[in-house]
Amino acid sequence: MNRKDDHIQGALTQSHTTNDFDRVRFVHDALSAVNVQDVDLKSGMAGKTFPLPFYINAMTGGSDKARELNAKLSKLAAHFDIPMALGSISAAIRDKRWEDSFTVVRDHNPKGFVMANLGAEVSPEKAKKAVELICADALQIHLNNVQEIVMPEGDRDFSMHESNISALCRTLDVPIIVKEVGFGLSGETIKKLLTLGVGVIDVAGRGGTNFSKIENARRKRRLDYFDDFGLSTVESLLETSASAEMEILASGGVRDAMDILKAIRLGASMVGMSGFFLKLVHEHPLETAVERVEDLIDELKGIMAVLGAKSLAALKDKPVVLDGRLLDYIEQRSLKHPSGRP
């Protein structure tokens, strides 16, 4: 089986009933005075405004199955005018045979906001080729050192990642979005990325698709200690509180409408979902997938009305409880222990 198909199958078989989003609760406002029809879900990413606060995050490409899934995902993205990120385009750069597993997105979503995706080892020349291949509006650079170490055939040299990211920020004409792949970003890493010229990050924390488990399933000798490694999405969002200059996106374990709004309340401007959309288009025809996303939108508006928030900006002022303690958004770092972690 193609390694990319291994990743798809691994992601489809994982389930996540609980994660750190369950540590966060909104404080109920029994006298909220908002009409659901007045709720505005507009949000933004990389200087663009979108009608909804979520996007289809990076998943796949580089196989026949990936081509089929990307076609369905792009149709869904076009229908709702939401951003979509592709999986790593390195497969197409190495082998032109797989180019159409990525370019198929533009066949079905020619005017949509599409993000290319590559690893931090990439040169500016290869990055430009990837952007040009799909006429990308932005480039995601994924940080996946843990996955690479667990991956039997993975990279082992990460020494040039910082200089590469800095070069990409200086030379590319599209926004650079740096993201993890499910192990989160610490405050220290976020500050370092800021010095490299990065203006947008996706914290992509633990709690959703676990690439350590996916790669461990492909190993003869498992490295199980990485299966519970890293920061959760909630912990990573708390780490961003001292990075006002950075635009924050959130992904990793986002299961439903409530998780989306919790992530936004904790500092994200938009929320990425991979597993949710992957399972949706894999298990259902497009018509059913559209209906489920419409249900998700209705749920978002209903929760916002209950919270008394007509907009996402208003949502950020709503009180929340973290681990049973009231979280003051301005002073949230005071809830952490001395190491800086929740």
What does this protein structure show overall?
This protein is α/β, with parallel strands linked by helices and 342 residues long. The chain has 14 helices and 13 strands. It has helices at residues 3-13, 64-80, 90-94, 100-108, 124-133, 145-150, 161-171, 187-195, 211-216, 233-239, 257-265, 275-283, 286-307, 312-315, and strands at 24-26, 43-45, 48-50, 54-56, 84-85, 114-119, 138-143, 176-180, 200-202, 247-250, 270-273, 320-322, 325-327. The strands form three sheets. It has an eight-stranded parallel β-sheet with strand order 4-11-10-9-8-7-6-5. 44% of the residues are buried.
Global Rg: 19 Å
Helical percent range? 25-40%
Structural class: alpha/beta
Q: Main sheet?
A: 8 strands, parallel
Number of helices: 14
Order of strands in the sheet with most strands = 4-11-10-9-8-7-6-5
| Low-confidence blocks of residues | 329-342
Q: Please report the total strand number as a whole number.
A: 13
Mean pLDDT: 90
The end-to-end distance, rounded to whole angstroms, is 40 Å
What are the secondary-structure elements, in order, as H or E?
A: HEEEEHEHHEHEHHEHEHHEHEHHHEE
> Which outline best applies?
globular
Determine the strand fraction and express it as a percent band.
5-15%
Write the layout of secondary structure elements.
Layout: H1 3-13, E1 24-26, E2 43-45, E3 48-50, E4 54-56, H2 64-80, E5 84-85, H3 90-94, H4 100-108, E6 114-119, H5 124-133, E7 138-143, H6 145-150, H7 161-171, E8 176-180, H8 187-195, E9 200-202, H9 211-216, H10 233-239, E10 247-250, H11 257-265, E11 270-273, H12 275-283, H13 286-307, H14 312-315, E12 320-322, E13 325-327
Parallel strand pairs: 4-11, 5-6, 6-7, 7-8, 8-9, 9-10, 10-11
Antiparallel strand pairs: 1-12, 2-3, 12-13
Helix pairs in contact: 2-4, 11-13
